[in-house]
């Protein structure tokens, strides 16, 4: 924490009995010291967050925002996917959600390659997260595609 921030906090909270060292330690131990300071000073504002974005080629929907870790949690529909090892001479296009287990080999088997295959036919609801900055950038890319 910079000396300027310490001075601001000391002047703001100087009217009540607190341990400055203790307060600084608490702020520094939170996931996000800037958010902690804004909350203490009453200046925290929830950032504007787009409701939709695109992630890994999927239309995604905002679910929640974790201000301490600066993470956007989102959901999207997509088939389940899995990495499997198959014989090197097998065409990946032959593999379907119904037969992928028949083609699957041990990763230690000779003359194999790893491929990613769909393991479900119908889309399944998935959840994930990313930074707020990454979410915003993906939302801008989605808007550019739509226009």
UniProtKB/TrEMBL annotation:
Organism: Spirosoma telluris
Protein name per Swiss-Prot or TrEMBL: Uncharacterized protein
Top-level taxon: Bacteria
